[in-house]
């Protein structure tokens, strides 16, 4: 069949890489794609939020399956739109409804959903600008550190961990009064800080059935030793050694089952991926947040470990037949190191020419913020530019394979962390 994949990041390049391995893929289109997806699929210059153009393209190219990579079109209702158009109503789409996407689009909605469905999560309260005084008074009664979250989408940057009461009060005012994160912080969730080790669990669901995909751990901060500003992700590893069989059994029973059952019970249409940010707190799972799509760069370590046909997984999600899909997962390790533009997550220069190695072994290169200049040369166009995923029978081998390739990729002011996975190695 002909397939349309929406998005332009490393996640979408990894999706494309996995999809084209299937014999059922006739032609893959990626809108808008990047310089990596253009080597294995046909890029289409359509915005991920131009719903009319997307619908017209689906009709023109006889698309049989649509996969929505990023959260923005989901939160804006792309699935609902396509299902209300006569020509596209019957075409399977991998991605939740607009209501389902509110699990990521609104932290307050998400927390209330967890409470209703007895999903373990941190204690919280939500405040608007009209409730600023109540919010400040609430902070006076909380233990430190305390977490402040912008209610809406803030490109992964709307979460603040405040170590002092003064910092928390100043941050709350900046978010509500000064709109530090724009419309996203018109509501702020104040949340108990959870101690423990963080990980991400990924679930594929057709709204009734589910499959738990390989778990992963990502590295958010720009500096080594997890220091500095938060980013969209500087690397990831899978599997995660502190997520043993007993812990994952608790995750399934206490988090995954009540979440999927809650979606069905509350009539929230959901055919897609659920990314569950978790804290392992003394062997007990606590949900930090839901995301309504696969993570980036976690996708780049999760997909290489899926051995069964990935396009069949996507099709079974979209057609509501996930119960018949046999998921096969490799026991091998996958590790991703993200290379970024110098200055990221602050300001950075674009258009730097990128040099890639001619041959690589034991690794894959996934493009994120890449493009072509007027001469057709590969250049950086975003903050996170390249994700290199190494695989191996041990984490040490996977890391070695990844870093060997990273060292052969060059552009002016390129930066990457040199300690991805080292904390996990120390636990092994």
UniProtKB/TrEMBL annotation:
Superkingdom in the source lineage: Bacteria
Pfam family, one: GARS_C
Statement: the UniProt record of this protein carries the keyword ATP-binding: yes
Enzyme class: ligase
InterPro entries the UniProt entry points to: ATP-grasp (IPR011761), ATP_grasp_subdomain_1 (IPR013815), PreATP-grasp_dom_sf (IPR016185), PRibGlycinamid_synth_ATP-grasp (IPR020561), PRibGlycinamide_synth (IPR000115), PRibGlycinamide_synth_C-dom (IPR020560), PRibGlycinamide_synth_C_sf (IPR037123), PRibGlycinamide_synth_N (IPR020562)
EC number: 6.3.4.13
Family statement drawn from the similarity comment of this UniProt entry: Belongs to the GARS family.
Protein's name in the database: Phosphoribosylamine--glycine ligase
Protein encoded by which gene: purD
């Amino acid at each position: 069949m002909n397939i349309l994949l929406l998005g332009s990041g490393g996640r979408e390049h990894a999706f494309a890489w996995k999809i084209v391995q299937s014999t059922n893929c006739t032609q893959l289109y990626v809108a808008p794609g990047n310089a990596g997806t253009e080597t294995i699929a046909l890029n289409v210059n359509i915005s991920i939020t131009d719903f009319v153009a997307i619908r017209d393209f689906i009709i023109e190219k006889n698309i049989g399956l649509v996969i929505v990579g990023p959260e923005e079109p989901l939160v804006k209702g792309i699935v609902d739109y396509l299902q209300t158009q006569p020509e596209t109503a019957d075409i399977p789409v991998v991605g939740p409804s607009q209501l389902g996407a509110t699990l990521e689009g609104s932290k307050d909605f998400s927390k209330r959903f967890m409470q209703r469905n007895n999903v373990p999560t941190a204690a919280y309260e939500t405040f608007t600008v009209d409730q600023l005084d109540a919010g400040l008074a609430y902070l006076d009664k909380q233990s430190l550190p305390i977490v402040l979250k912008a209610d809406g989408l803030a490109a992964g940057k709307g979460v603040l961990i405040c170590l002092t009461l003064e910092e928390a009060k100043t941050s709350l005012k900046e978010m509500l009064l000064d709109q530090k994160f724009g419309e996203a912080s018109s509501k702020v969730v104040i949340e108990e800080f959870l101690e423990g080790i963080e990980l991400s669990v990924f679930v594929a669901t057709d709204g009734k059935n589910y499959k738990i995909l390989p778990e992963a751990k990502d590295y958010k901060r720009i500096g080594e030793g997890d220091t500095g500003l938060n980013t969209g992700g500087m690397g990831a590893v899978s599997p995660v050694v502190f997520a043993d069989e007993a812990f994952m059994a608790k995750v399934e029973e206490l988090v995954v089952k009540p979440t999927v059952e809650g979606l069905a019970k509350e009539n929230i249409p959901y055919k897609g991926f659920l990314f569950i940010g978790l804290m392992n707190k003394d062997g007990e799972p606590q949900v930090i947040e839901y995301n309504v799509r696969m993570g980036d760069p976690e996708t780049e370590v999760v997909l290489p470990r899926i051995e069964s046909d990935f396009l069949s997984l996507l099709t079974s999600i979209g057609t509501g037949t996930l119960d018949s899909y046999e998921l096969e997962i490799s026991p091998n390790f996958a590790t991703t190191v993200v290379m970024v533009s110098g200055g990221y997550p602050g300001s950075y220069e674009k258009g730097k020419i990128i040099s890639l190695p001619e041959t690589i072994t034991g690794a894959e290169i996934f493009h994120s913020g890449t493009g072509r200049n007027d001469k057709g040369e590969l250049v950086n166009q975003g903050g996170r530019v390249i994700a290199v995923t190494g695989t191996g029978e041990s984490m040490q081998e996977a890391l070695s394979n990844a870093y060997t390739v990273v060292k052969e990729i060059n552009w002016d002011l390129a930066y990457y962390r040199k300690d991805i996975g080292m904390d996990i190695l120390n636990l092994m």
